[in-house]
Design goal:
The complex is a heterodimer of chains A (407) and B (284). With 407 residues, chain A is an all-alpha fold. Chain A is 74% helix and 2% strand. Chain A has 16 helices and four strands. In chain A, helix 6 packs across helix 16. In chain B, helix 5 runs antiparallel to helix 9 and helix 10 runs antiparallel to helix 11. The longest helix of chain B is centred in the C-terminal third of the chain and has 36 residues. The chains are: A mainly alpha (407), B mainly alpha (284).
């Protein structure tokens, strides 16, 4: 391996390490000093110079001046940073915050580290177009990494902090003393009852709409309007569903009384577009030949749908429904005005009585944090909710992956 | 006969849209009649009977823009990775993971965001409290990511292979093909992804409510990300439980605005997507 490539690899490794250190320092609020930062940037800058000069001397490649220029920029940043005061106070501009210098230093390390590791691909590939390609691919890998990082942070934190709170008592008792003691038993039952009821309501509507769109509809205004309506409904904010549920189901249908049924109806409206879309997708996946064969044997359209199209698409249809229910189980806004109380509703006993539900329970506990000793219970509730919702989702996704390659 | 039954069921979605609009409007009407354009002023003072929701409108837009600044580069990067360079096996693992990210309930995001991120920013920047636009933008960006990624990924996957092959055959690298052929061809699909992400950020309720603190004020200066504030969604969610009388009607006005804004975004995104499919239909 040539010295040219070794310098590039060295630049890459050093930059990644420095970016990682900066990231770590931000996360742990470590007090990075000026000289740590300046020293790191100096190493990067010198490596860039070495790369640029060596490349020009051995290959006479003027593109290597890029590294000289970049090295100088890094050096300038490092040198000028000495003028950053130890705390940048924003209060004179009426912004109530102050940014400590170590935050700037860590940021510089992250930004310049990432930039340098990206640029290190250029000299490695001799400033050919492959360098740009692999540099870009490297950045794309970083973006997928930072996309998934929060998922792991969230799951890790909820599991480690919530685990201790999940006890037998927590799972089998009602709230005691505003959630400081006791558990979430009625809330678990309430959530399960609500999504079961939602499923019963939404399944015929969603699948019916999907059958119309996939099997009967021809291009035309009516279909266009229905599709647009489904899309709008899918984008509608959950709080608007909550307002609608309150104005229509609670105030008009049920005379101002919150109830399990009103909540389930609201959630059915919320999940309708999700069920419709995935059911339509599942129906469309059934090949047209099957339909033609059935029709050619003299079956009617409805017989064909019932006997030929629906059976193979059933797993897909059900998966979509279950994914919708997973969403419904975690929603707070649509049910908070239509169905739930924090305490006192007890285990669900009637369709026309209010219930307790896990998401709303978590919200109520959060509001008490700081006034009462409920943070442990709140973490445990969050963990339980996450287990239920992600459990539903994972089951649905696994079923879908299993049946995906049928045709 | 059967045909008409299914048509009847299918019209339900249309009916619901109308119902939502009508019933929101019925509840909002008293407030619109009483206050008129005063509803758009920036003074919210219950004791003086002033209900201007401008701070909430501003907050909704501000927080959504911030969320997009976080989510768009990451989201499009991740989508490009998934659709263009991820090996099939990696893709099969990552796609479900991103779906799981979308499955986390917003109240859990809000709880985590307020407790972990809020406290972290409070410590780092010495703010007044744990609530801030900055924290809300970061969390909302995270929440908008899955929808942006999956829609942008679909858009790039829909670009016909012929186009890419033609570019590769001319000697372009894979990356040049992605940058000069795939992304420009999929641009309307990608924009529709960004619009839907913005719709998600504007419509997000529980997370914003917990993280932003729901304080009825416009940030000063207008770009102050360290300030607390309010959004249309958080305003409704907080006040509905605590208020009665005319305030409820004001909240329904806010609800109508929210509904109309997001519906318009859905329609635009829908049109963009149809355009993409139509563009490639003849070439497939």
């Amino acid at each position: 391996m040539s010295l040219r490539k070794l310098i590039s690899i060295w630049l890459f490794v050093v930059s990644v390490v420095i970016a990682g250190m900066g990231f770590w320092a931000i996360a742990t609020q470590a007090q990075i000093g000026y000289w740590t930062m300046a020293g790191s940037l100096l190493i990067i800058s010198l490596t860039c110079y070495a790369s640029g000069i060596h490349h020009y001397v051995t290959k006479k490649n003027r593109k290597s001046f890029l590294m000289l220029f970049y090295g100088s920029v890094v050096l300038t940043v490092a040198a000028l940073s000495i003028y950053i005061p130890s705390v940048v106070d924003l209060r004179p501009w009426e912004i109530f915050a102050r940014i400590p210098d170590h935050f700037f230093f860590s940021m510089f390390m992250v930004v310049i580290g990432v930039l340098s590791s990206y640029l290190s691909f250029r000299p490695f590939y001799d400033y050919k177009k492959e360098g740009a390609q692999y540099g870009a691919y490297y950045l794309l890998h970083i973006s997928i990494f930072f996309t998934l990082l929060p998922l792991f942070i969230i799951i890790f934190n909820i599991i480690t902090r919530g685990m201790g709170g999940i006890t037998w008592e927590f799972l089998t008792e009602d709230i005691v003393r505003m959630g400081e003691d006791g558990g979430v038993y009625p809330a678990i039952l309430g959530t399960l009852a609500m999504i079961s009821l939602t499923a019963v309501i939404v399944l015929p509507l969603g699948v019916g709409t999907a059958i119309y769109l996939a099997e009967y509809a021809r291009k035309g205004l009516a279909v266009r309007v229905i599709r647009t309506a489904v899309n709008i409904l899918q984008g509608t904010p959950s709080i608007v569903h909550g307002l609608f549920g309150y104005a229509f189901f609670v105030l008009i249908v049920f005379n101002g009384q919150k109830s399990l049924l009103a909540g389930a109806l609201t959630l059915a409206v919320l999940t309708l577009p999700i069920v419709t879309r995935s059911a339509e997708e599942a129906l469309n996946a059934v090949p047209g030949d099957l339909r033609d064969a059935s029709l050619a044997l003299g079956a009617t359209k409805w017989q064909t749908i019932k006997k030929v199209v629906l059976p193979p698409s059933l797993p897909g249809v059900l998966t979509g429904t279950v994914l919708g229910l997973g969403r419904a189980a975690g929603e707070t806004a649509p049910i908070m005005f239509t169905a739930v109380y924090f305490s006192g509703a007890g285990t669900p006993s009637s369709l026309f009585r209010p219930i307790q539900a896990l998401p709303y329970h978590l919200l109520s506990l959060y509001r008490l944090v700081g006034y009462r000793d409920v943070e442990g219970q709140a973490w445990a509730t969050a963990l339980l909710l996450l287990i239920i919702v992600l459990g539903i989702n994972i089951t649905a996704i696994m079923v879908r992956e299993k049946y995906r390659q049928r045709f | 006969m059967v045909h008409m039954t299914f048509f009847g069921i299918a019209t339900f979605s249309v009916l619901i849209i109308f119902f939502i609009f009508i019933f929101l409007f019925i509840e909002a009407y008293p407030a619109i009649e009483m206050f008129g354009t005063d509803l758009l002023s920036s003074e919210w003072n219950v004791s003086r009977n002033k209900f201007g929701i401008f701070p909430a409108i501003y907050g909704s837009v501000f927080v959504a823009i911030g969320a997009l600044i976080v989510a768009v580069p990451l989201g499009i990067g991740a989508a490009t990775y998934l659709s263009e360079i991820a090996p099939n096996r990696v893709r099969m693992v990552l796609k479900p993971l991103i779906e799981l990210l979308a499955g986390i309930p917003s109240i859990v995001y809000g709880f985590i965001g307020a407790i972990l991120l809020g406290r972290f920013l409070y410590d780092t920047f010495g703010m007044r409290g744990v609530n801030s636009f900055l924290a809300a933008m970061l969390i909302l960006g995270m929440m908008a990511l899955p929808i942006i990624i999956s829609m942008a990924d679909d858009a790039m996957k829909a670009v016909p292979k012929d186009l890419k092959d033609a570019s590769l055959a001319l000697g372009a690298t894979k990356w040049q093909t992605t940058r000069k052929v795939t992304i420009p061809a999929a641009i309307s699909g990608i924009s529709s992804a960004v619009i839907m992400g913005m719709g998600r950020a504007i419509g997000e309720t529980m997370a914003v409510m917990l993280i932003l603190g729901s304080v009825m004020r416009t940030p000063v200066p207008f770009f102050n990300v360290f300030s607390t504030g309010n959004t249309l969604t958080a305003l409704i969610a907080i006040q509905m439980g605590e208020s009665h009388g005319i305030i409820i009607n004001v909240l329904f006005t806010a609800g109508i605005m929210l509904f109309v804004i997001v519906a318009i975004m859905s329609i635009i995104s829908d049109i963009l997507q149809t355009r993409t499919t139509e563009k490639f239909e003849g070439k497939r």
